Amino acid sequence: MKAIQHQELVTPALLIRAEAMARNRQRMTQAMSKFPSVSLRPHMKAHKCGPLALLQVADGALGVCAATVDEVYVAASAGVKDILLSNELATLAAVKRFVKIAAEFSQAKLRICVDSVGLIRLLKEAGAAAVNVGVLIEVDVGHHRCGCHPDQVVALAQAISEAGLSFDGIQCYQGKLQHIRDRDARRDAVMASAVAVAKLSKQKLLDAGIECNIVTGGGTGTFTVEAGSGVFTEVQPGSYLFMDVDYGKNPDTPFESSLFVLATIISIDSTRSWAVIDAGHKAVTMDSGPPAVVGHAETVQYTSGGDEHGILSTGNVGDLPVEFEVGKQLWLVPGHCDPTVNLYSTVHVMTEDGKSE
Ligand code: PLP
Ligand code: MN
Question: Which Gene3D superfamilies did the record assign (predicted)?
Answer without folding.
Answer: Alanine racemase (3.20.20.10), D-serine dehydratase-like domain (2.40.37.20)
